[in-house]
Amino acid sequence: MGVSFEVQPSSSAGRTDNNPRPRSLRPNYNKIHAQPLPIKTFPLPPLIPHNPLSLIQIAVTYLSQLLAPTSSHPQPLFRGYFSAETRSIHVNDETTARALWEQGFFGKGSLSRSEPAWLEREKIRQGIVAGDTSEEVTRRRREERKQFKNERAKKEREAIEGKLAEESQGGSFNAMTEDALQGLEVQTGPNDALLDTLPQDSPGTMEPFVDNVTPSSMPSLKDDGQDTCATLREPDSSPKDIINQEHLQLTFEEAFFLVYGLGVLEVQAAPDSEKIPTSLLFTLSCSHSHFPPQPTTQLQPDEPFILSYVVYHHFRSLGWVVRPGIKFAVDYLLYNRGPVFSHAEFAVIIVPAYSDRDWSSTNALRAHVEGKRKKTWWWIHCVNRVQTQVRKTLVVAFVEVPPPESAVVSEHGEIKHMGRFLRRYRVREIVLKRWTPNRSRG
Hints:
Elements: H1 29-32, H2 53-67, E1 78-83, E2 88-91, H3 94-102, E3 108-109, H4 118-125, H5 134-169, H6 175-187, H7 207-212, E4 248-250, H8 252-262, E5 265-268, H9 278-288, H10 304-317, E6 321-324, E7 332-335, E8 346-353, H11 363-372, H12 377-389, E9 393-400, H13 418-422, E10 426-432
Parallel strand pairs: 1-5, 8-9
Antiparallel strand pairs: 1-2, 2-4, 3-4, 6-7, 7-8, 9-10
Helix pairs in contact: 5-6, 8-9, 8-10
């Protein structure tokens, strides 16, 4: 079941320091996301040198775990289904989906931006449950920011028009001020450009538009004790009638990390079929990372899935929460604890490195390497500027690609010696920052 919370009605318009906006009620994320990974650990008690009883406690704990060990993995294991159409792993069980999201932020809801919360949104839409989801809070915050920009543009326009009116009455009309007014209309931005499309009876008359977008005029779920969403509710609807149509989607990197790195997930091709072996899942992920999928017997050591998984496993092993970074034109985003606690601190792009001499031994291999090195400094500067604008640090992860070897894939399409195969890759990290004169002067 999803997490919902109530937000007290507030408005950004007219807010002063003496009348701050009331803080919204939020879930206890520290308790919900207490486990960083979907496994349990049983550490030994700390050793206190000046307390001899701590040695007895350590011995008792160690013997109890040795004689009656407790499983650190969920029983039964989580289960997912391989989807070639969406090139992802689907998790249909609600309990499993909630556990994977709350314990490591794995996957995303198929009908949500990030956290699987479609069922909660549907209950709120039908008036069954009162409250707001995290996506509703984000949407309201963006509307308040848009309203604030509209009001700010309106005040600036009124000030300039008032100045123009005073100068025209005094006979000292300034053409430069009129040009500044036209420039203001162009620089207000795409959201504020809606102001110019509204009819104006007199200079500075913008009240009808501002009144229509105030939060107080928008429908509320709790208005005078009445349920304003009752008109959207079907006659015989009830909480048990709503079927959750959302599932959790895991990327190939996330799924393979849960299967190979943690051992908490089993992937099947169909509900009634046997689980896919780890090595075969690896080759299937490599094959379906291309479009159209390539045969598993033609895998190369610089396959996109191999490089992305090596980097994903590397940063997950260091304790980072790794999320896809397509929103900011990068491969991954690194969070310290998770998206609900803070913004991502680092943005990662993956660059293959061909340092081994075997990659330049033949003309075919040299042509293959040159085809992979199509990115230029212009491209890296563009990506770095984007990350600077969103207050993130760009990290270039160079993956040392081992030389091509024969018989990497067996006759059945499986990798031989998975651990030995992955140990051939190395990851080097380089942090790039923009040099700005006003901040980097000596």
